[in-house]
Amino acid sequence: MRFVAVTSCPTGIAHSEMAAEALEVAAREKGHEIHVEVQGAAGAPPLDPGLIADADAVIFAVDASVRDRDRFAGLPSVEVRTREAIDRAGEVVGRAAAAAAGTPRTAAAATAVAAPPEAAARQGETVRRWLMTGVSYMLPFVIGGGILIALAFVIGGAVPVTKVSLITDSGKFQFWGDVNVSFRVWLGAVFLLVGKTAFGMLVPILAGFIAYAMADRPGIAPGVVGGLLAVAVGAGFLGGLIAGLLAGWLVNQMKKVPLRGTLKRMMPILIYPIVGTLAVGLIMLLVVGRPVASANAHLTSWLNGLSGTNEVLLGLLLGAMMAFDMGGPVNKVAYFFGIAALDAGNFQIMAAVMAAGMTPPLGLALATVLRPRLYNQEEREAGEAAWIMGASFITEGAIPFAAADPLRVIPSLMVGSAATAALSFVFNATLRAPHGGIWVIGLIGHWPLYILAIAVGTVITAISVNSLKSLRRAEQPAAAGVTVGA
Questions:
Q1: Is 5:35 a contact under the CB 8 Å cutoff?
Q2: How far apart are CA 407 and CA 465, in angstroms?
Q3: What is the CATH number of domain 2-114?
Q4: What is the residue-wise DSSP string for 139-151?
Q5: Active site amino acids
Q6: Is the Cβ–Cβ distance between 225 and 281 less than 8 Å?
Q7: Minimal CA–CA distance to 143: which of 458, 387, 443, 445?
Q8: CA–CA distance, 168 with 399 (Å, rounded to integer)
């Protein structure tokens, strides 16, 4: 058969590429032809319309909304999360073949569809996809803006300005209307201004593209304005989530109003932006803003008041969350908790979160070096790549190992990451950038101890996973009826 597929994940780096590769390998093994469009961080070359027209079915392996989904209208389809495509690619391809042939679902799939919780599960999956779509469009603002702000402190002390002039006639640099300053200070001010502008857009972009995922383009303006108002009233990241969901819901309700003729044609360009934006704005200002802002203020106060044992417990929790699903929703909750703390001026939490996200790939890379016989050739090759991915804070580098042996690998990763994050707090490490891994070491406070925390967590992860895998190998002969001993 001939299939087309689309893969998409919030970061657009690891999950989407790995899902595409897994689907291609599984289809080839089953004798099918498949062409995959990876809607990643660098943009996606669209599938040729001729390939779509000739396809027997389409596979959506997505954690975020699919761009231009209408292209696939009328094709039999299978939709799964990227992790399912990575872990069970053969099964997903088989389901696509069954859908194309019009054959009944497997017994397991039929049971799942008939189960009462399925409707709620589908709705929960839909909401998760809306949120992850907002996250995917927001991340470039978070990373670009956050790292530029951090670099401003390194370059020129991050002197705050609102306007920066060009070079003066005398060839020197100056702030707008201020005295002449050195190039280093001027450049730091430029970095700070650009970085804060980009970082300040993260909540509006999050809200706008959550609304976009729910209601398509008419949701963007109400969502972005709702996000801007969330920032203005101090409701922050949580306020942006609420604004996006609210804007998408309101626009969808307006779409249900039966209209005809000219009025119907005017809705997208006139009614949705005006009525939707005004309604979301009023609700954010009069209903949502103040309570959420108050909750944010209390959370910030609590975070700043943490010390000693409380910090260690928070580190253990955040570290375990970062390793639990390696870039999935639980990981993202911990990561954006760190982003919110960073925005509030707490740099310890972001440091702990990033360290915990670096440890899983590094620990598994070390594990393949210490006990290579416990891993097959593909895993050893993945271990080589995991060194770079871990150092770059790409937690998804651990996924191939977790997919092959989740019951042993995932608990080991959680233990190592929890220890790393807790040690980061104990060492009072700080981080002003929201991403970058080892490459932003100049922006890390107490960096020698920070590296030590990551190293300790890496060793714990490697020893834990190799110990559990060795236990499995020791049990196998006994299970086969062979006596193990002297």
A1: yes
A2: 10
A3: 3.40.50.2300
A4: HHHHHHHHHHHHH
A5: 9
A6: yes
A7: 443
A8: 53
Confidence at residue 109, expressed as pLDDT on a 0 to 100 scale: 39
Stronger pLDDT, 360 or 401, i.e. the higher one = 360
Q: For 216-266, how does the pLDDT look when each residue is reduced to its tens digit (9 = 90+)?
A: 888 999 999 999 998 888 887 788 889 999 999 999 998 888 877 777 777
Measure the CA–CA gap between 365 and 380, rounded to whole angstroms: 8
Q: Are the C-beta atoms of residues 188 and 156 closer than 8 Å to each other?
A: yes
Question: Phi/psi at 180 (nearest 5 deg)?
Answer: -65, 145
Token pair of 86 as six digits = 């990575």
* Phi–psi pair at 173, nearest 5 degrees: -105, 145
The whole-number pLDDT of residue 45 equals 74
- Examine the pLDDT at 480 and tell me if it is beyond 50: no
Mean per-residue pLDDT for 278-293?
A: 89
Helix or strand holding residue 3 (H, E): strand 2-8
Q: Are 156 and 189 in contact (CB under 8 A)?
A: yes
Phi, psi (deg, nearest 5) at residue 443: -100, 5
Asked whether the predicted pLDDT for residue 206 surpasses 50, the reply is: yes
Q: Give me the residue label for tokens 């705050």.
A: 160
Burial class (CB in 10 A: 0-12, 13-18, 19+), 89: buried
Residue carrying structure tokens 């390696």: 326
User: Residue 88: CA atoms inside 13 Å, Cβ hemisphere, count?
Assistant: 9
Total Cβ atoms within 10 A of residue 417: 38
The rounded mean pLDDT for the chain is 80
Other beta carbons within 10 angstroms of residue 482's beta carbon come to: 8
Read off the tokens for 438.
């080892």
CA atoms within a 13 Å half-sphere pointing along the CA-CB vector of 439: 11
Q: At what angle do helices 236-255 and 329-343 cross, to 10 degrees?
A: 120
User: Alpha-carbon distance 119 to 476, whole Å?
Assistant: 41
Residues carrying CATH 3.40.50.2300, the chain: 2-114
pLDDT at 58: 92
Residue 455 amino acid letter: A
Q: Is residue 482 very low, low, confident or very high in pLDDT (cuts 50, 70, 90)?
A: very low
Each residue's pLDDT tens digit, 6-38: 988 766 566 778 888 889 999 988 889 999 988
CA proximity to 81, closest of 137, 166, 8: 8
Please give the share of the chain, as a percent, with pLDDT higher than 90: 24
- Alpha-carbon distance values, 237 to 183, 336, 338 (Å): 35, 9, 11
Of 465, 432, 59, 390, nearest in space to 473 by CA: 465
